[in-house]
């Protein structure tokens, strides 16, 4: 597992930088987007659900509805700033680390833990359907506390 504390913030505020990141991703840096980007990208890489981000936003006095959080997360995802990891039909996490890697999902804690891409090997992968190519492979290994 990689040590993610190394990517912790090194400057007090990344606001100007985040504004630039949003612009470069083709998103207008509205106050709400910048505030949510700060929560998401202001520290080490992380995995967050829409509900968790909504709670954090409320605690930071950023008043946004859950619907806006969903929209913003999907916009960030479409813009390539976040990776979406679907755990099941009703639950997705958004990963600030968009590089190739896999995940453990701790079912009892509803938490994701990174697995480096190099730790998972495939003996065989089917060819992509005709006219298509594999964009990436997501592995989610579900774990729970051993009794
Ligand atoms: Zn991850």
Automatic annotation (TrEMBL):
Protein's cellular compartments: Cytoplasm
Superkingdom is Bacteria
Family annotation (Pfam families): FUR (PF01475)
Keyword check for NAD, yes or no: no
What keywords were assigned to this record? Answer: Cytoplasm, DNA-binding, Iron, Metal-binding, Repressor, Transcription, Transcription regulation, Zinc
SUPFAM superfamilies the UniProt entry points to? Winged helix' DNA-binding domain
Q: Which InterPro entries match?
A: FUR, WH-like_DNA-bd_sf, WH_DNA-bd_sf
Q: Which Gene3D superfamilies match?
A: Winged helix-like DNA-binding domain superfamily/Winged helix DNA-binding domain
Broad class of the protein's primary localization: cytoplasm
Is Transcription among this UniProt entry's keywords? yes
Please report which protein family the annotation says this sequence is part of.
Belongs to the Fur family.
Q: How does it assemble?
A: Homodimer.
Name the chain's protein. Answer: Ferric uptake regulation protein
Q: Gene name on record?
A: irr
């Amino acid at each position: 597992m990689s040590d993610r504390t190394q990517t912790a913030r090194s400057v007090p505020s990344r606001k100007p930088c985040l504004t630039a990141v949003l612009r470069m991703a083709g998103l207008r840096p509205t106050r709400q987007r910048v505030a949510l980007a700060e929560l998401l990208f202001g520290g080490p890489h992380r995995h967050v659900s829409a509900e968790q981000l909504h709670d954090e936003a409320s605690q930071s006095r950023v008043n946004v509805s859950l619907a806006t959080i969903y929209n913003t997360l999907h916009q960030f995802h479409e813009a390539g700033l976040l990776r979406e990891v679907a755990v099941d039909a009703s639950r997705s996490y958004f990963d600030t680390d968009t590089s190739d890697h896999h995940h453990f999902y701790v079912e009892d804690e509803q938490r994701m833990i990174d697995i480096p891409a190099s730790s998972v090997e495939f003996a065989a992968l089917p060819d992509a359907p005709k006219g298509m190519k594999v964009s990436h492979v997501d592995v989610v290994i579900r774990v729970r506390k051993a009794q």
